[in-house]
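B., you asked whether I could sanity-check this one before it goes into the benchmark set. Here's the sequence:
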Amino acid sequence: MEWKGRRQSDNIEDRRSDPSMGGLGRGGGFSFPSGGGMGRRGGGLSIGTIIFLVVIYLVLKAMGIDLLQIMDGGMTTGGPGYEQSESGSQTPANDEMTAFVRTVLAETEDTWNGIFQSQGRQYEEPRLVLFSGQTQSACGFASAATGPFYCPSDHKVYLDTAFFNQLSRQFGASGDFAEAYVVAHEVGHHVQNLLGILPKFNQARQRMSEADANKMSVRVELQADCFAGIWGKFTEQKGILEAGDLEEALNAAQQIGDDTLQKRSQGYVVPESFNHGTSEQRARWFKRGFDSGQLSACDTFSGPI
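And here's what the prediction gave me:
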């Protein structure tokens, strides 16, 4: 994918230097499979622990050591042009990965602005949050184990770019277009939200059994794959795809199918627990969107999938 030198989106919120976590928020995020689930941690500090910490702070304060000043000063040790991540590593503020994500997001903006305008609608561009390790969203607390996800409550896509390494090394899905597919899939959920599809699904699943909710979730996820394929079609028309790019995206779709992930992690599959679709389904619906470039081709809610 010839992405360098192209427009980069300003709709990026970089939290890789933000140490604040916050509490749990509302549920309802739509995550990309990562081999883990939505990270939710409970518990907190006991009264005894709090008293102990206060005593330690007062003793050090009496000795002329102000922990608050030390902690505040420690956040600026990265130096100009770098951001201190929560893992302690230094991440360039304008590194190549950030530039890549900004460019892919800009390409999705161009695609969906054009499609919405052709239908007499206005596209609301989502923001993409870059985080390292863990962060807070309006849909709840998330860790790297969550994988990339879209939160319909705040209209934001959340991405720990370390997932791209996992995509390549653990899932065997390497390549920049495979990574772009991940972003485009989550933006596809944003499109669903704007079209009213996600709100209807969130309301309906409250009355569904777990098995029925999983079946409906598969249709939602496959449509997001199809929407990602539409983005791929418009990107191809710009002439910036390279040989093998489409195969990279299709391979990524196959590698993160529910059946493939379950076979890899536990050696067997449980179809009733599928919530993203099989490898064959995910690749097929992405290809359908790519071949057609039409929203009408992405109706995953009518008939078999």
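One thing to flag: The radius of gyration is 21 Å. Otherwise nothing jumped out at me.
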